[in-house]
User: Fold this.
Amino acid sequence: MPVAAATATGVTLAGFNALDRDDAAALVRPCLDVDRWVDAVVDGRPYADLPALTRAATEAVGAFTAQELEAALAHHPRIGQSAQGGSTEAALSRGEQAGLDVDDELDRQLRQGNADYERRFGRIFLIRAAGRSAPEILAALQSRLGNDDATEDRVVSEQLGQIAVVRLGGLVTP
Assistant:
């Protein structure tokens, strides 16, 4: 199965297990662009079921190096802003943030919180938006501004892992 077809419509677990290594890596990379994670997920095939794939993807996250965090965050827009472009990553991000209901005041607060976070930590604020309301995201953003650098690095790693699993679940189906 060509990877272009797989990324456009997703692929079944059996199809994912059968992809050649390069195509499988290309399929999962938009979920989390960290070579170590991609290698672990792809090299763990074949998976017996989706829970096994989810477990492997979650376990592969671990603690990210500064370079891995930077690489992974480069593909994420600011929370509350729509990802631009036609890449799989951009489409996944737009889908994740599509359910956020943001009025003008909440938008202002998110923009201010994003700016405060970027000044504090030198990178964009990242959170798994899927399944969360805009007020929940704003509260988490404001709370995380009080984290020390090491704590925030752990939280960002956890959030990247959660996003990767959500995205993987949208690309690999039963």
Summary: Residues 1-8 have pLDDT under 50 and may be disordered.
